[in-house]
Amino acid sequence: MPKAASPNSVKRYSRKGLTMAKANRRGELVCAAARLFREKGYAATTTRDIADAVGMQSGSAFYHFASKQELLAAVMEEGLTGGLARTSEVMARPLPIAEKFRAMVRTHLGILLEAGNDFIPVMLHDWGRLEPVYKQRLIATKDGYDAHWHDLIAELVRAGLLAGDAKTARLSILGALNFTATWFKVDGGVSIDTLARRMAGFFLRET
Amino acid sequence: MPKAASPNSVKRYSRKGLTMAKANRRGELVCAAARLFREKGYAATTTRDIADAVGMQSGSAFYHFASKQELLAAVMEEGLTGGLARTSEVMARPLPIAEKFRAMVRTHLGILLEAGNDFIPVMLHDWGRLEPVYKQRLIATKDGYDAHWHDLIAELVRAGLLAGDAKTARLSILGALNFTATWFKVDGGVSIDTLARRMAGFFLRET
DNA sequence: AAAAATAGCAAGCAAGCGCTTGGTATTTTA
DNA sequence: TAAAATACCAAGCGCTTGCTTGCTATTTTT
Q1: Mean of the pLDDT values across residues B123-147?
Q2: Helix (H, G, I), strand (E, B) or coil at B121
Q3: What are the DSSP calls for A115-151, one per residue?
Q4: Strand C contacts (CB < 7 A) among A residues 35-54?
Q5: Which ranges of chain A have pLDDT less than 50?
Q6: Are A21 and A32 in contact (CB under 8 A)?
Q7: What contacts B12, CB < 8 A, 6 or more positions away?
């Protein structure tokens, strides 16, 4: 039985070790899925929509992904990997803590709002639609992400630059930042840079 | 042709003029739909799920609602009407502005997090799945809701109790509050009262 | 008491869904 | 250069979906 060889899911789509979406057909599917999931939601997006968006027959997408769930997981993993990389880089900068906070706010808003960055918004909106087995595969990366914010905000509270307890501060700040994904429009008059400066200024207690 | 008379959609389900869900069969459908839409999302919830939840045949729900979209609109309208009533009552109280802010934060968190209040969370999550014609019917109520927060926060900024410009403050605060709907668990150790006090304290600049 | 309105049930239809299958052209490896 | 792997296409299968239809039992109105 010469069964067709399908590499289906264990497949690198990177260049020089760095995650680089859209480098091949599989990456195109992930990007198209991310865009459509963000626009219409996971459940309301059909696998035909996604295949059409990259000029494929609807069944052909299942050569690259075993299921629609695996595609959703790939979208979120792309977002988490890219976001964690950007965030780690900012955290490693030798900056005064208030400046680091401003840079982190700007970076997080970039991850959420910059054109083409649909991955994390999909995760924020459709995390509940991802089956538990796929969630587990992402939680480690997700925790690494949160840890950076945990450390950053704990230090800001200790320095008296944020009010209240660290947990309330973290949940409030990340809630406010994440919620921008639901209302921010690229052509809405305010740039990401400006929004980041204003929001950081709203939270920080300058001394 | 003795066409069956179906009152479908123009139908009051109130008692003594006050919106009182679950008072009749139609109200039961709205509440069941709200719970299921919140748990699984609008698109992933079937009309059979909803009918089953109230012990109806799947087709019978369409005696009360012309379409699944009308059911979604009814869920959101129930949330907006109830939320606006609670919010207006708080705004009318003769309180010092900082106390009024604390009361508004508590009320808003109640609308989002109290058991059985699934309506506004559905609106926050699935607003994008509502067809434009239904959106327009809700926007007036939605604006009345926002106006209260607009006035409240403008006054707080003028009084020096909130930092930054009023728009940034409003978007940040409402973002932080609304995002609690995605992570708050009733059995998560912290009560709504406590959370409200902490979040209000995080935002306010006490003088 | 007749008529009409209310609130369903039982059955099912057409369209759309995720996914599978058998095959093929091209590229890569042995 | 033969064999194997890659990256699809064309067709369609079985199931689920929102919604419709014809009918009936009960309550309300005239």
Answers
A1: 97
A2: helix
A3: TT--HHHHHHHHGGGS-HHHHHHHHHHHHHHHHHHHH
A4: 45-48
A5: 1-6, 8-18
A6: no
A7: none
Q: Mapping DSSP to helix (H, G, I), strand (E, B) and coil, where does residue B205 land?
A: coil
Rounded alpha-carbon distances, angstroms, from residue A52 to A21, A39, B48, B129, B154: 18, 15, 30, 21, 48
B119 and B79 Cβ atoms separated by less than 8 Å: yes
Q: Does pTM surpass 0.70?
A: yes
Contact across the interface for B169 and A128, Cβ inside 8 Å: no
Q: How far is the CA of A5 from the C1' of D11 (A)?
A: 21
pLDDT at A132: 98
| The two three-digit tokens of residue B80, written as one number | 């907006």
Q: State yes or no: pLDDT of B6 exceeds 50.
A: no
**How far A106 CA sits from the closest chain B CA (Å)?**
14
Does strand C come within 7 Å of the CB of A4?
yes
DSSP letter (8 states) at residue B18: E
The verdict on A176 touching B (C-beta cutoff 8 Å) is yes
Mean pLDDT of chain B: 91
Residue type, B34: A
Question: Do residues B108 and B179 touch, judged by C-beta distance below 8 A?
Answer: no
User: Please, are residues A194 and A109 in contact by the beta-carbon 8 Å criterion?
Assistant: no
Assigned token pair, B74: 């009814």
- Rounded to an integer, what distance in angstroms lies between the CA atom of residue B181 and that of residue B179? 5
Q: Count the neighbouring beta carbons within 10 Å of the beta carbon of residue B135.
A: 14
Give the pLDDT band (50/70/90) at residue B7: low
pLDDT in tens, B60-78: 999 999 999 999 999 999 9
In this prediction, residue A98 carries a pLDDT of 98
B182 touches chain A (CB under 8 A): yes
